[in-house]
């Protein structure tokens, strides 16, 4: 996490596993397991910085501090533990909920943030670099605790959901519902409905309109510049860049790179996206036709083996390769692990691969997602998702008994618009209100929804 | 039609209605009714210019000249008669069809183009400024002719469709289908299916993906600059412009204006579009808060009375008002027809409205659509729609007897992609082909469709 | 002049030369010679439209209406007679001057504007399409009139200056000075100082900082889009455009074209400008390497024979060629006048040149300056020059007897800044004032000049 | 230096001053003084990364490896010791020079790079965080060494020049010349010429055209995004940013911020720059009128106290303040050191200043230059300066005895163009060559210079 305080100064705890160490907060609280409770103060600062950039969730915090819609809600959380999630967690608590939280990924925990949450008396379980065994141990700790009977799950990837279902099926059936944000987790939920084995309602946050419109396009517009600068300090002006894929991610990358004076070329398989690239002023070519001249190659396709050894053999000396797409398989990194090539780690997340003739290419993050590995996800965009999650939790918690069944639901369009409106305040944006006349003319209600249901 | 030859030089025919004059082509053909057959040569040049900018339909013309998929198709056409439609019409004929054509609008006919079509022996009926009575007379001439039994209708607005159904129901039932491109026409078709009175299949071209992605955004990006320059010669650099609405039209306008150094402000009713405007770098405000400072106001909402007398009372001296939206009701022009205000027609399509204190505002096209009135629709974008129309006609004509019923159909996604691909050639764009491996990984066929059906 | 009222309606005066017709204004004034005094009303409207876009000169008009700094100044004007010059002329008169005016070009007079000036009792001499003989007759009429002894010349090209000097040397010696705006005129003045034969002071307006910073860059950014749209209706999105030259004109063209979604390529001879093009994100290539793929070629070099027959032989069918540079020799148009090629005039200012194989290229304005021929110069930018001219006239008129000698002077830097400031009002721009402390720190006076003298 | 290997792993040498420790390279060389010779390998990697982005200097290295124009040149260098300077130093040596090098700043040395140079047997003296006394000791070591008599100085700031002149005036008089790149150093040289005490020629690199055109504009376009991301991770999309000053730095910042979707406002004192901002589409306002709404404030004026306590008192909670201008006095940081405000260091180079009511503003780098403190200067731009320095050194070294006197010289325009051309290769840019005909027409030589001497 660039820019944040490095942990080295307080990592003296060393190699003993957090599970084996007894830690205590300044107030004597012990129901947690983090890397080092002493780093809480640094984590608190990161949380405060995140709060500044999360206007939507902060508005909800103020609003729900009074009427406490989650009073007596008990939520099992299983997400990345970062400064931004911390803002969500503390807002859930302000709204009346009690929570227990586990990390959904063995690498992604910001240790000092986890410490800051624990220091506030929140049962949080997870640390960076934990083992697979630790991972499930943390989920167990979050989901099973004495007399604490959860009524909601906030999941990312479906692991908490499936763990509960497998191990504590009775408790699982009593839940009021699940809120899931990831592609994978949503996929698993739909599988369950197909097999008729989802006994409780679930909200699919991943396919909400606000997420679709804002996440990829705007996040990647920022992240592509940020991750390349942080790793290589390259100057963008005049650089020739090949962007593979002109979906939302590709569009965001192209827009940012042009803004910095780079020349972007696009590859596409879909003629519709290809024609958009043309109309937006980008030359559409094939990898083979561009690979000898470009300075940077960015993958954003969702496909596999888009950049292969045959391409990398032809790249210019010093060419940078960076993956911004969905998987770690867009660049065929395995093909670079041959005896004739030398790998040199030159900086954190940066390898030089050296050909026998001395030519070197610069590989970012070993082909994993550069935007997640080398850049911070903008808190502002996480705020949009966090609001959606919170509203979905409240919706499930407050719903009339038979409103939702054992099925997967999308957030109502109106809530999408509400989440968007929460984020306008930060921009001093003033939305126009319709007159009665105009409502009638357009056939919409004064407060929306303004777009048809099929709108994306 | 700016830039084209003015008609004055050959309009000596004067005030006698074309219906009452006998006209003959150089080859003695008389089955047509246009303003002045002598202007054919000028029309031919306009058609040639349009052909240069319509790569997709010209590729189809070459391709279908051989296998003639419309051999023995007989098409009633009812559309705007412009250079671009002429390119479509002549391509349909090259593909084997015989056609009879009527204007779908009493104002939009390019007289010299109609003459050029007639000169080629095409039965075409329509002229600029014809009466309502003339309008229906033309449709009658196009749809009813001796032994010529139509089997397809290409409609824009539904008038030919409804005329046929009302007057020649038996012939109507024998049609292989209808292709309809307009919002209104599509709406009327859906009404018919609701009432169970559409006996034959119809293709809804208006909602095809290529139309949605390209028409509004890219047409308006060009048209906003063009129509304001042609009417007012205003300099855009540094001008403050209020764009009401941030849908596709508004997005296109904002993008073009920024490119010319103007400062764009946006109004929106929908928080999602408002947030997009923010993220794209445009200030979102209300009309009231901007109206005193802006130099240009553009409406692009689809709503009515967006700019009202109360706003216009506050505008700066010289402020320009221009409608780029869907209707002629976005600007409340009626409210300007009061005794205290003076109207001065200063140029074609430009009125100055003068307040008692001498302040004047500049109204473009009396509030009608500036992009259609004061600018030419780019041939390139019309080519996309024309290809879609042509493919839909062939699909209906060639379909197995029971494939389509009395219902409204969308063009298959794959045809959308095909139309897009036809237009890539003009940009020298090279689409990438998937390997077998990648097809399998993505779960798509090598030639597409590449996007799910619900993709928009 | 696109968009303006055509003259056909009032050109019944027909082919009799204006010099041979007696014309009278509605008030009986006859000391003028224009095409048709009856078109005055249309010209007045064009002048009013121009006033809206000339904030600087209109501010001076209000300011100088009171103290009349040009009281008893008698100015011989010899410039293009357009709506914008009319605004300047009427402002000079408001400031106390009496004027006599001749056209500086046989083609550029807006006849209806000349009529509008005459109608106000201003002695104006010139019409569109006059002969060489007429031209000098008009200058004679403007410079020699009974007891009216001029004390200033406002010249464009130097013709009035040289006519006076040659024919009325005594009167010439009595002038307080000359203000000259054109490259050519300035060149001729410097020649005179070299030869020691300039007896009176002259102000070189052409090399003022405001002109250099604003004229080419911002005018051409607007004009390139405008002139191509008005002549060809081409869609810019996705088009590949070759811009020859990356000086101010080329920079303006590239910026506008990118803003509309075109892909711009640049040619340059100067490595410094070439490197700027690179850093701004434009590919720098040679004409030969791009000529087969581009859709539009724009010359902006100031050089000759930049596009030659050998290039045009290789262009794509439909490629457009357009000159935005300084001369009419950038495109070797003569090389196209060979028997194997056919010229077709397809629209006003548009020729198709057809190769034996049917391929056609589209030549704009026969290679003359497209921005002047096919587009209107933005009134806003003319306002900057007009203010500079007016201030220079006042400076010469009011100067202490020995302040200026028989030499060519540049406008003081401070006046440049004043002219700029006059144009900020139109943009609601608020300039910041320095505190005493800051003035001292920077070593500049509170009201400027803010930049050193060598600043360009 | 973000992204580079942290030193913690090899800093065990601890608090003993480098001057007091004996260090030896792997080959037994000892004529150097750096922080820790063991970090040489890390430094070598940073140098290799820099080489990739410095095409111009690398071309010169290859070219001069053969004819060795600096054979028997002995250069005293006194500059920042960074990876980029290391590339220059090693190129000078390849060209035949022998060098001795001292740091020109007590903070800016990249210790591992200094180690890498020493490891190659280069006498280099300097380390990060050295004292004032150490600083002069290093210059002494560089300039005075046994029988090594320097004949050139490459200086940055003038300290080596003045030290030599003061302490070793005889040796100083024997130098062939000085090359100086900084504003300060150049100022001091001009002072010396004024006082008639510069006995040898000096080249002013700071005012070369290539430096002026590329350094500020393009460096700051990159640095503004980079330094704010690295310190605050802020999302730019939709943010309102106030840029104080629209010179080259301000222009670069505005361009980059717009490219990322931010809304930029500009303040200016000079009407000419203000009008440019308007024409480029930025609103020009006063600090007071914007300060309550903006999210980020950037100073780029060269002035002092542009942002004062009175402004900061009104800023929004979370507003970021960042200086990109010339001095550390643009933001009145002293005014924030009052008892009522609390300073919290939240990250490296980031302080929160907390008001009594809880509102906090975010101050970057305590008001020092953010682009230098929080971002890396792009190697590409340093390459331009480095080439200029190298060519100037060769010019002085090779000049005929009386060509240059005791005066300050500018680099000939032609060398400016040569340096630019060296950097085009990296962009695959192809410059066009003039024909004889065209040379004659333009009045320039085939290989330039292409612009007049007064061109800037």
TrEMBL record, chains A, B, C, D:
- Please give the InterPro entries that the UniProt record associates with this protein: Adenosylhomocyst_ase-like_sf (IPR042172), Adenosylhomocysteinase-like (IPR000043), Ado_hCys_hydrolase_NAD-bd (IPR015878), NAD(P)-bd_dom_sf (IPR036291), S-Ado-L-homoCys_hydrolase_CS (IPR020082)
User: Which protein is depicted?
Assistant: Adenosylhomocysteinase
Q: What are the recorded Gene Ontology BP terms?
A: one-carbon metabolic process; S-adenosylmethionine cycle
For this record, the Gene Ontology CC terms, alphabetical, are: cytosol
Q: Which Pfam families does the annotation name? A: AdoHcyase, AdoHcyase_NAD
Please list every transmembrane segment annotated in the UniProt record, as residue ranges.
none
Q: Where is the composition biased (Low complexity)?
A: 1-17
- Extract one GO molecular function annotation from the record: hydrolase activity
**Domain named S-adenosyl-L-homocysteine hydrolase NAD binding: residues:** 216-377
PANTHER family, alphabetically? Answer: ADENOSYLHOMOCYSTEINASE
Which protein family is it in? Belongs to the adenosylhomocysteinase family.
> What are the alphabetically sorted keywords of the record?
Cytoplasm, Hydrolase, NAD, One-carbon metabolism
Enzyme Commission numbers on file: 3.13.2.1
| CC cofactor note | Binds 1 NAD(+) per subunit.
Keyword Translocase on entry: no
Pathway(s) served: Amino-acid biosynthesis; L-homocysteine biosynthesis; L-homocysteine from S-adenosyl-L-homocysteine: step 1/1
Q: What cofactor does its activity depend on?
A: NAD(+)
Q: Which reaction does it catalyse?
A: S-adenosyl-L-homocysteine + H2O = L-homocysteine + adenosine
Please list the residues that bind NAD(+): 247-252, 268, 371
Q: Where is this region: Disordered?
A: 1-24
């Amino acid at each position: 996490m660039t820019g944040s305080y490095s942990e080295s100064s307080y990592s003296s705890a060393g190699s003993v596993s957090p599970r084996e160490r007894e830690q205590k907060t300044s107030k004597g609280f012990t129901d947690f397991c983090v890397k080092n409770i002493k780093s809480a103060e640094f984590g608190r600062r990161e949380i405060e910085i995140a709060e500044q950039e999360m206007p939507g969730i902060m508005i909800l915090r103020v609003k729900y501090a009074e009427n406490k819609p989650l009073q007596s809600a008990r939520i099992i959380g299983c997400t990345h533990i970062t400064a931004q999630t911390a803002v969500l967690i503390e807002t859930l608590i302000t709204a009346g909920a009690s929570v227990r939280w586990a990390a959904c990924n063995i690498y992604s925990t910001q240790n000092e943030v986890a410490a800051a949450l624990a220091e506030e008396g929140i049962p949080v379980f997870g640390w960076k670099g934990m083992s697979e065994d630790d991972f499930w141990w943390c989920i167990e700790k979050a989901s099973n605790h004495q007399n604490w009977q959860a009524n909601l799950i906030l999941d990312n990837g479906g692991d908490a959901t499936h763990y509960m279902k497998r191990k504590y099926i009775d408790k699982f059936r009593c839940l009021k519902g699940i809120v899931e944000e990831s592609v994978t987790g949503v996929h698993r939920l739909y599988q369950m409905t197909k097999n008729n084995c989802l006994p409780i309602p679930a909200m699919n946050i991943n396919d909400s309109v606000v997420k679709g419109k804002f996440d990829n396009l705007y996040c990647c517009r920022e992240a592509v510049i940020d991750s390349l600068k942080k790793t290589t300090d390259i100057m963008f002006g005049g650089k020739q860049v090949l962007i593979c894929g002109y979906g939302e991610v590709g569009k965001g990358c192209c827009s940012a790179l042009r803004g910095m004076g780079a020349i972007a070329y696009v590859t596409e398989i879909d003629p519709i996206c290809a024609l958009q690239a043309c109309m937006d002023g980008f030359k559409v070519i094939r990898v083979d036709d561009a690979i000898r001249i470009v300075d940077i190659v960015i993958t954003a396709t969702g496909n596999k083996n888009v950049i292969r050894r045959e391409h990398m053999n032809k790249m210019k000396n010093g060419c940078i390769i960076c993956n911004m797409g969905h998987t770690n398989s867009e660049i065929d990194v395995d093909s670079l692990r041959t005896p004739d090539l030398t790998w040199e780690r030159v900086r954190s997340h940066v390898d030089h691969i050296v050909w026998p003739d001395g030519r070197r290419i610069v590989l970012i993050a070993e082909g994993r997602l550069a935007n997640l590995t080398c850049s911070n996800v903008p808190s502002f965009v996480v705020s949009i998702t966090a609001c959606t999650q919170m509203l979905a939790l409240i919706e499930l918690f407050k719903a009339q008994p038979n409103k939702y069944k054992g099925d997967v639901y999308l957030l109502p369009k109106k809530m999408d618009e509400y989440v968007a409106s929460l984020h306008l305040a930060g921009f001093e944006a003033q939305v126009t209100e319709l007159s009665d006349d105009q409502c009638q003319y357009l056939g919409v209600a004064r407060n929306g929804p303004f777009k048809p249901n099929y709108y994306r």
